[in-house]
Design a protein that fits this description.
It comes from Marinomonas sargassi. This is KAP family NTPase. InterPro entries: KAP_P-loop, P-loop_NTPase. Residues 53-282 form the KAP NTPase domain. Pfam families: KAP_NTPase. With 524 residues, the protein is α/β, with parallel strands linked by helices. It folds into two domains: 13-275, no CATH class; 281-510, no CATH class. The protein is 47% helix and 12% strand. It contains 22 helices and 15 strands. It has helices at 28-42, 68-79, 90-93, 99-114, 139-149, 163-171, 173-195, 218-230, 245-256, 262-267, 281-288, 296-302, 313-326, 331-346, 356-368, 370-377, 381-384, 389-397, 429-440, 467-471, 477-491, 499-510, and strands at residues 13-15, 18-20, 43-44, 52-53, 56-61, 85-89, 206-211, 237-243, 272-275, 305-307, 353-355, 403-409, 422-428, 448-450, 461-463. The strands form six sheets. A five-stranded parallel β-sheet has the order 6-7-8-5-9. A hairpin with a 7-residue loop joins strand 3 (43-44) and strand 4. Mean pLDDT is 82; it is low at 155-166, 448-452 and 517-524.
Length: 524
């Protein structure tokens, strides 16, 4: 049984030249649990009782953004020390148009490497019958494949076989059945070649990881599943097929029709399913967004000030995540909005000030409902609706309890207040919306104190005279933080960023969409 020492992701690592940061989402514990679970399902050693080898297929259900590619690559790399292990990125190889060829070639090349066998040697060969299982549609490609992996004796070069003959073999049920049996025997022998090596320390079962299947062409994805189910149900081998199962169901329906029961169909391919949940939004954004561009040092260098100011870029990103969470933004959209906010900051001229909470809130409103956004920035909310903006904010967000972080710099006030240095306070994002956001977009309002309980509808407001004066009546961390924000708002001229400027920023940045593109270690 493996231990935490065998799967340790506490440090950054490199796999085939690609960097993988340390595990900040606690995923290593899942890899350890699944390893021991699948090892027990795939193999019972003779020391325990009678030796038993079994085939097992696990569906790792992982929605976009939960980090399945990072998870699978680090996991499979660690397992190579203990088990015969193959990692296949199905999406990168679906150009072959033949899932069987993809799996066979990957198994041979990767197991050869783990067995320390020279590529030129033919210890790992494929019986000639197996040629009939490969598609005849690409004879040139199969010819190249056959030269690389098929031995000379008792094996044949596909260049000597006409495409019509291959098609004929595929049509012959008995020949196909024998070919499958031959392939299973060969794969089992390749695995045992590694596990029986007295100089090695690898044991059963063998692990084969299939990643990115949901991103493949629907026909290729379905054929890959059929290949695993009917050809690679080999004792002593466990498959881990990572998918966004909901997306894979769409692929199945694309082949069999919208009325087809894709969920039931997929269920027949897997023995069990393990769902890798998406992390909390804060951790998710830290893994996907460059928070260094939100740090105090980076912004100071560019001459840009944000509200609330936080030297630590992660604290600022955390505040952004609080806003995104309040709007219940989906992972893809959350990344887009955070990147848009950073793009705006990066393109602001030196000497600019902007309320980042306000900007992010407006980006969310725009993404959610562009007409509602226009009502807010046009300061026409009340004329277009029966309720004031502050009342709308109160009714919509009053149940949202998450807090933003505000680092108060007491040195600004000459050391005459509570502290002579900085201190971090928390304040409700809801309170910020009521007392600062709504006032900025209401021409009849000014920044002041709302009734702390917010029981009035709309809440009543008292004048704000400055942080020193306000601090005398502050009775909570939240009131200190909000008072500090209001003081900065007036003294640092954040109030000077008029709604029309926010509108320009948001509409310009929202025209920019980042394409998911290829999967990466960060994500995907």
């Amino acid at each position: 049984m493996l231990t935490k020492a065998d799967i340790d992701w506490s440090q950054e690592t490199f796999i085939e030249g690609e960097g993988f940061p340390k595990d900040t989402l606690g995923r290593a514990q899942y890899a350890l649990f699944l390893t021991n679970f699948l090892a027990n399902e795939g193999y019972t050693p003779p020391s325990t009782s009678k030796e038993v080898k079994r085939n097992y297929v696990l569906n790792l259900n992982s929605e976009w953004g939960s980090g399945k590619t990072y998870f699978l690559k680090r996991w499979s790399e660690d397992l190579k020390e203990h088990f015969p292990t193959v990692y296949i990125d199905a999406w990168k190889q679906d150009y072959s148009d033949d899932p069987l060829m993809t799996v066979i070639s990957s198994v041979i090349s990767q197991l050869k490497e783990q067995a320390d066998i020279d590529e030129a040697k033919s210890d790992f060969t494929v019986p000639k019958r197996v040629i009939g299982l490969l598609k005849a549609a690409t004879p040139a490609l199969i010819k190249t494949f056959s030269k690389k992996y098929f031995g000379d004796e008792d094996f044949i070069d596909l260049s000597d076989v006409a495409a019509d003959a291959v098609t004929h073999l595929l049509d012959e049920h008995e020949e196909k059945s024998k070919a499958i049996d031959d392939l299973k025997i060969s794969v089992a022998e390749w695995v045992s070649f590694i596990t029986d090596n007295p100089q090695g320390n690898k044991q059963y079962p063998a692990f084969i990881f299939i990643d990115e299947l949901d991103r493949c062409r629907p026909s290729y994805a379905v054929e890959m599943l059929e290949t695993i189910k009917h050809i690679f149900d080999i004792e002593g081998i466990v498959f881990v097929v990572a998918t966004d199962t909901e997306q894979l169901q769409h692929a199945v329906k694309a082949i069999y029709g919208e009325g087809f029961n894709a969920q039931l169909y997929l269920g027949r391919f897997f023995d069990s399913r393990f769902s890798l949940k998406a992390p909390d939004l804060k951790g998710f954004l830290e893994a996907h967004v460059d928070h260094t561009k939100l740090s105090g040092a980076f912004l100071d260098e560019r001459g840009v000030k944000i509200l609330p100011p936080n030297p630590d870029g992660k604290a600022t990103l955390r505040n952004i995540s609080v806003v995104l969470d309040a709007f219940k933004m989906q992972p893809r959209t959350a990344i887009q909005i955070a990147d848009r906010a950073i793009a705006i900051l990066s393109n602001m001229p030196s000497g600019s000030n902007i309320d980042l909470l306000m900007l992010t809130t407006l980006l969310c409103f725009y993404e959610e409902d562009s007409e509602q956004f226009l009502r807010i920035v046009s300061e026409l909310f009340e004329s277009k609706n029966e309720e004031k903006l502050v009342t709308y904010i109160q009714n919509r967000f009053h149940k949202y309890k998450s807090n933003i972080l505000v680092e108060v710099d007491f040195k600004r006030y000459g050391g005459t207040l509570y502290y002579n240095d900085n201190k971090v306070y928390e304040a409700s994002f809801f309170t910020y919306l009521i007392e600062i956001f709504s006032s900025h977009f209401d021409t009849n309002e000014t920044i002041g104190f709302f009734d702390q309980e917010h029981n009035d509808n709309p809440p009543k407001k008292k004048p704000f005279y400055g942080f020193k004066e306000a601090l005398q009546s502050c009775n909570s961390e939240e009131s200190v933080a909000i008072s500090y924000l209001k003081d900065l708002y007036n003294v640092e001229k954040y109030s000077g960023v008029i709604p029309a400027q926010y509108q320009d920023y948001v509409e310009l940045a929202s025209a920019l969409d980042w394409i998911d593109g290829d999967s990466s270690s960060g994500d995907a």
